[in-house]
Amino acid sequence: MTIDAAALAQLVRPGARVAIADGCGAPRAAYAALSELARTRGDLRLVLGWMPAPLEGLDLAAFADARTVMPGWGLRTAVADGLVRSVPARLSATPSLLAGPLRPDLLVVAAAPGPYGLQLGSEVSWVRAVIDAGVPIAAVVDAALPRAAAGPVLPEGQTYEIGHDDAGPAEIPVPDEPSAEHREIGRSVAALLPNDARLQWAPGQLGQAVVRAVLDRGRPVHADSGLLGDPVVDLDEAGLLASTPVATYLVGTRRLYDWADAQGRAGRPVLHGVEHTHDPNRLAAEPPLVAVNTAVEIDLDGQVNVEGSARAIVGGIGGHPDYSAAATRSRRGLSVIALASTHRGRPTLVDRLSRPVTTASHDVDVVVTEHGVAHLRGLDRAERRVALRTLWE
User: Fold this and answer.
1) Angle, to 10 degrees, between the axis of helix 205-217 and the axis of helix 180-192?
2) Which UniProt key words apply to this protein (predicted)?
3) Has residue 48 been placed in a domain?
4) Is 26 exposed, middle or buried (0-12, 13-18, 19+ CB in 10 A)?
5) Is residue 175 situated within a structural domain?
6) 3-state secondary structure at position 227
7) Can you tell me the distance from the alpha carbon of 149 to that of 128, in angstroms, rounded to the nearest whole number?
8) Rounded CA gap, 265 and 271, in Å?
9) Structural domain of 323
10) What is the widest separation between alpha-carbon atoms in the chain?
């Protein structure tokens, strides 16, 4: 790993707002140099996105202001400690935020060397929108990144190499074997899928259980999800991918990253910017979209909270409301909320949410627990409450 701290310093003007590209392929090699520059200057501001891995070497306290548009696991403690402010935003709105009140003066990315120039690697997310806005790019070149991004290479006149690395994207272990509860939920979800379905699933044990059930069912699906993890490789190896997957982040192990990099010199172009992946009109079109998301808790009206409990932040808004709303509009599609009926001994159905609403009740079609399925479409408010209470009894 080599970083030219002087080259980085030349790109950062006084009082600048610096955006760090997010995801598993975040430019971790630049963290130390950027932190030292922030300590020296005393007036630098920081914008972060979804960080699923620890931010080792990034001194958040050194920045005059630090904000995130999506607090992933790597930022939970920093947000709870007040070092980073979490801006509530659905993922589809982040390009607008980053073109407006949170527009950065510099974007720091890790980039893979490709046959035609430097390219984004294991995520695209909101980064493409910032690049298209003409923001200067400080690039750490990392040959171990998968070349999974669709779209153009980084523009030469806008990109400045500040170092090299060979670490590749952070590896996120495959979740433990799904529990009996999750396996039952997965089977119920798979039974809801229409033929030729486009499937979006959440990461973790529950998402793994859903894909496992799809594999057992044996009918191909289109993978159209904000995140792609190792289960997409299982679908591909089983011959159950009906088309090239669409996503904006890769999050998983080396097996996933090798799969994404394995299709010729240019890699497998599965990653797109959120303007494409989270576009409601695209998502609502054919084939039918079945969005399978989970929740921290759901109330009697069907309103969903994914941000955390009363005591702790769990995650951010992300694409949950984007996919849920699009799926309700998709003919033959469904917006599914899948969750265990209890968590650590407490019911996940509550009278009142612990935090603000993430996804509105009218963007929830079906709720699935290990006890069965509550079909909410076409029901009035009172009937929906009865259906949810019955599911938890």
Assistant:
1) 50
2) Hydrolase
3) yes
4) buried
5) no
6) strand
7) 10
8) 16
9) 180-392
10) 64
For tokens 């659905």, what's the residue?
90
Chain position carrying tokens 């159905």: 349
* DSSP calls for 81-110: TTSSEEPP-BGGGHHHHHHTTT--SEEEEE
- Give the amino acid at 124: V
Q: Are 190 and 217 in contact (CB under 8 A)?
A: yes
Judging by beta carbons within 10 Å of its beta carbon (0-12, 13-18, 19+), is residue 276 exposed, middle or buried? middle
pTM for the predicted model, two decimal places: 0.95
**Number of folded domains in the chain?**
2
Final residue of a domain: which of 116, 140, 165? Answer: 165
CATH classification at residue 81? 3.40.1080.10
- At a CB cut-off of 8 Å and minimum separation 6, what does 183 contact? 209, 212, 213
Structure tokens at 299: 């109330």
| Token pair belonging to 91 | 């993922």
Q: Contact 90/321 with Cβ under 8 angstroms?
A: yes
DSSP state letter for 53: S
